[in-house]
Amino acid sequence: MSRYDGLGRRESVENSGAAFAQTRHNIYAYNDRNELTGSERKAGSVGAPTAVVDAEGRLYEYDPIGNRINSAGGTDPQVTYARNAVNQYTALTGGVNASPVYDDDGNMTGYDGNTYTWNAENRLIAAETADKRITFLYDYMGRRVRKQVYSGTPGSWNAVPDETRVFVYDGWNLIRETVSGTASSETYYVWGLDLSQGMQGAGGIGGLVCGVSGGEVRRYAYDANGNVGQLVNESGVIVARYEYDPFGNEVRAEGTGAQGNPFRFSTKYYDAETGLYYYGFRYYHSELGRWISRDPLKESGGWNLYFFVGNNPLINIDLFGLFKNSSQYVEPVIEKVYQHGNNVLYRITSGAYITHILTKIPAGVAIAAGSAGSCYIGYMITSWAIEDTWLDGGLGAAAYDLQETVRKWIANRQNHTPDVPQADNPLIANEAETDLENHEEITLQIHHYATNKNQQYTPEFERIICKYGLELDESWNKRLLPHKGRHAERYHDWMLEQFREADSIAAGDKDLFIQYLNGGAFETVQNHPEMLTKEYWDRH
């Protein structure tokens, strides 16, 4: 069972029952940028963590751009992070003493005794630990198709690998893994609907149904974020249990099948030799809570090229190591909300509700944003969410999206203020007040990211999307946003460039093409709707 705050952020989760080693409360806290600042795992009452009181608690502090300043875990000493001007950690002191090293392309080449080697395409091709050398081979799409492990010592590695793993994919989902060497095996992986309720819309996260090896079937069970929690054999016996801290460090890995299973945090492949998770386009280091190479999307994926899912892994996910994503896997909840009232605006601007909250006093719009958002969520969403218990984490993200919609709507009504109690959401309230001071009256309309009615640009977009079986007037290309009038040619030029880049990355993979745009260009426009105005491009 989960509880959420007024921003739709998860405050606590209770884990109980036979699937868990013991009953636990997981408790969380956040800062004003929605970054996770604390987590605690304990039995007893639920309250926000203010200090780490047991071995499984975590506290985090960040600078304004998302780099960790300090972290503390349980009874371990506090770790302090030194950062450089390009957001790379240069030294960790305290509980961990290490100095990460990077090459000129921003790839980590050394950390805590391990070394990493990269090719010209910024793909990790080798890693060395104190007693292992691991090499990697990729196909034309960047998928890892081979992994080899050698024994020895640095500078004196065995010529023949102890183990070779060969991988076969369907899209980006691993469907066959063949192991040869000291021990040989073959495992087939069966995938179903992931968190997107599609086959690969969420990068397979939460979608791995079972693994079949040597005639034995093991089924996967997940938490709300798509982290593997249990493995169950054909007799219904739990043969592996996993528990993680929010950033994917294993708190528990118990059972006879725990170590042999590579799929764990975020349903991604875990390399036990290096402690890294392979996401597709990048490798994730759970101890550091970040990627070990720059974002291939560059600044299109966010200003900080290394930090992981906005430092909020309880709501956000990353499909392939490109960008954080929350909207895709919560889409079913959002769609349900819109369907029940045709759209959100119909609900909050209709009948007695608008009569109740609006007056003509031009002060207090801050109260409107917070209160209308929280009241709407509390009153309207609860009953609809009951049917979506499988989407535990998604509901919180959907609620936050709705509050943002409410805020924008109220900010457009400059001459009104609600007659309701103090805002439950001061962060959104303050943003709304700022919006009001600088905002012209711009109505919310359905916006096509790629224009579908322009003689010059529409054919260019259609040439790209036709190979994916898509059309411009479909939901993937539309969003309710504040805008009016025609867009500047420079906007269309910019969006066309984003589509071409997505096409080059996706290479025919429809789901990846859409996800690339969702996490890059589309999210940028959602966060900066002023890009839809000619004035914006005149200034830039």
Notes on the structure:
The protein is α+β, with helices and mostly antiparallel strands. It has 3 domains: 2-325, no CATH class; 331-438, no CATH class; 444-539, no CATH class. Helices cover 23% and strands 30% of the residues. It has a 15-stranded antiparallel sheet that branches. An 8-stranded antiparallel sheet has the order 1-2-3-4-5-6-7-8. A 4-stranded antiparallel sheet has the order 24-25-26-27, with no helix packed on it. A hairpin with an 8-residue loop joins strand 2 (10-15) and strand 3 (24-30). Helix 4 crosses helix 6 (426-438) and helix 8 (489-506) packs antiparallel against helix 9. The two termini are 48 Å apart.
* Helix share bin: 10-25%
Mean pLDDT: 78
As a percent range, the share of strand residues is 25-35%
Number of helices: 10
Structural class: alpha+beta
* Tally of strands: 31
The total domain count is: 3
**Shape category:** globular
C-alpha end-to-end distance: 48 Å
Question: What's the helix and strand layout?
Answer:
Elements: E1 2-4, E2 10-15, E3 24-30, E4 36-42, E5 58-62, E6 68-73, E7 79-83, E8 89-94, E9 101-102, E10 108-111, E11 114-118, E12 124-128, E13 132-138, E14 144-153, E15 156-157, E16 163-170, E17 173-181, E18 185-191, E19 208-213, E20 216-222, E21 228-233, E22 238-244, E23 250-254, E24 269-271, E25 276-278, E26 283-285, E27 290-291, E28 317-318, E29 324-325, H1 331-340, H2 344-348, H3 351-357, H4 365-385, H5 392-411, H6 426-438, E30 444-448, H7 458-465, E31 478-482, H8 489-506, H9 510-527, H10 534-539
Antiparallel strand pairs: 1-2, 2-3, 3-4, 4-5, 5-6, 6-7, 7-8, 9-10, 10-11, 11-12, 12-13, 13-14, 14-15, 14-16, 16-17, 17-18, 18-19, 19-20, 20-21, 21-22, 22-23, 24-25, 25-26, 26-27, 28-29, 30-31
